[in-house]
Amino acid sequence: MKLSTRTALALAAAPVLCAALSPSPALAAGHPGAGAWKDRAVRTYDALQHELYQGPENHGLYQEATPHRSADNAHSYLWPMREAAAATVDMAGLPGSGRRYTADAAERFTTLELYFEPRDGRPGYDSYLPAPLGQGGDVFYDDNSVVGLTLLDQYEATGDAVYLRRAELAFDIVSRGWDDDPDRECPGGMHWVDSPANNMRAANVTGLAAELAARLHQETHDSRYLTSAQRWYEWNWSCLRQSAGLYRNSLGDDGSVNSTLWTYNSGAMVGTAATLYKATGDRSYLRRAVEDAEGSLAYWKQGERLHDQPAVFNAIYFDNLRILDGIRHDPAYRQTESAYAERAWKENRDPSTGLFRFQPSGGGDYDPAASAETLEQSAMVQIFAGLATDAH
Q1: CB–CB of 148/142 below 8 Å?
Q2: Among 63, 83, 144, 182, which residue has the least CB neighbours within 10 Å?
Q3: Minimal CA–CA distance to 208: which of 188, 192, 185, 227?
Q4: What digits encode the pLDDT tens for the residues 302-356?
Q5: Tally of helices (H runs) and strands (E runs) in the chain
Q6: CA-to-CA distance for 40 and 345, rounded, in angstroms?
Q7: Three-class secondary structure assignment of 19-32
Q8: What is the rounded distance in angstroms from the CA atom of residue 182 to the CA atom of residue 107?
Q9: What's the pLDDT tens digit per position in 93-150?
Q10: Which helix (H) or strand (E) holds 363?
């Protein structure tokens, strides 16, 4: 049985716990150009909107997956909604045609606010819609970190300070996750979820929160963001780094280590180091970013490793490689993303609907029996749009 998105992500983080595209000449030669990637981004976004978007009459929300089953929630969890917002921001940035998606992007962020719960003293974006639209959920700090990053993307795209203020609020939320118990094994690190039952500090939260803080410093020059970014980045580097570019999943409060590796943990550390270099001019951050990028590529390109990672984690990974590429160009970054995207287009897409299907993990080979999910569909929009926008 296919797991829900939140359940799949929980298991990943738990301690030990619409027609086929006609090939252009570039495609026929095996080298898709920017125009082909743009076409694929548009087709994939159109399929997302046609098959999974629930319309203005449903507050601009999305289904978790299609086909919709009677046991499913009425709407998606927060993380898929965030990915749909990120995808739409990327569509609005497409060369030549992005303007047609700016209204869609604005709507996505209005809808994201429906997940915000201003609970007494501990506000946050809930994992599921609070009343009256849903039953609410926990505040996962990884969810809130990626929401903050996407708010910054929209701020950079529009200049509207409302998005910057919301990103700063997201920072305040995730800052609560820092563990200040000096008696822990490797003290520090970010809790995964805002709950007394939390018993681990996770690489995903810590890396993504560090990236959020670094980017906020870049925008505001507020020293508290820089201090936090450096502190959180160094904890991941010191306590969960396995080797160049590879970060173990989490450290339990009992000292146990979950050694599972994910592409987005590699990506968040590359992006944070690159951003810290831009913010401080300290070349040691650039050296570390390059070392992690090269080390992670050497690992993830082996065999089926990249193919088997969840598509949404790969989208985050490639997005962060592009941040570094803007500072120090390496064609290997784009070549790896292009090869991954080309294979997914050929092997994971249903040409009759334009929807992508993967294994229950969110990655791997096409599974015709699997649901098509907002999470992965949005991730593929981001990958195609990124390749179309950042062509070298």
Answers
A1: no
A2: 182
A3: 192
A4: 999 999 999 999 999 999 999 999 999 999 999 999 999 999 999 999 999 999 9
A5: 15, 10
A6: 8
A7: CCCCCCHHHHCCCC
A8: 44
A9: 999 999 999 999 999 999 999 999 998 889 999 999 999 999 999 999 999 999 999 9
A10: none
